[in-house]
Amino acid sequence: MDDRMFRNAMGKFATGVTVITSKVGDDIHGMTANAFMSVSLNPKLITVSIDNRANMLDQIKQSNQFGVNILSESQQDISMHFAGQTKEDREINFGFIQEIPVIKDSLVSIVCDVDTSYVVGDHTLFIGKVIDIASTEGEPLTFYCGKYGINPVVS
Fold first, then answer.
1. Residue 116, beta-bridge partner list
2. Which domains are assigned to the chain?
3. Flavin reductase like domain: which residues (predicted)?
4. Least confident interval from 49-58, 78-87, 126-135
5. CA distances (Å), 11 to each of 18, 63, 135, 146, in order?
6. What pTM does this model have?
7. Helix (H/G/I), strand (E/B), else coil: 2
8. Angle at the Cα of 90 from the Cα atoms of 20 and 88, rounded to 5 degrees
9. What is the maximal distance between C-alpha atoms in the chain?
10. 97, 111 Cβ separation under 8 angstroms
11. Mean pLDDT for the stretch of residues 7-32
12. Cβ atoms of 73 and 141 closer than 8 Å
């Protein structure tokens, strides 16, 4: 199978949208990602998958910490900004939890210390030990078949 067939098939899995954040010195970096999942309740662990060519890879390796921000349906513009899908410069006003940058008004912000990492194919999986969470009510931003906000009909 070719890469496009694989990518199209994986796009049939509806996901939420997150922005991964990290800070090294005064430099805050963020990237949009949907490769995120809960791993363990005890201890509390999550994982994110980062392309080995992404700038975020070095940020997380240097800081040994990261945040996962689950976006609300009103934050598509933020997702597009961190995915490099907009041309305009935008100032992001970050919040902080345990000194880790987070996206304000996200449905959930989870901050982690890196527990371990694994290079798998062309990505690195970072397992994060959750150190704190902030959560609010609202509807999630979704992604399906390459489009935002498309919720599959369940019959």
1. 127
2. 3-148 (2.30.110.10)
3. 10-150
4. 78-87
5. 16, 31, 27, 6
6. 0.90
7. coil
8. 115
9. 50
10. yes
11. 91
12. yes
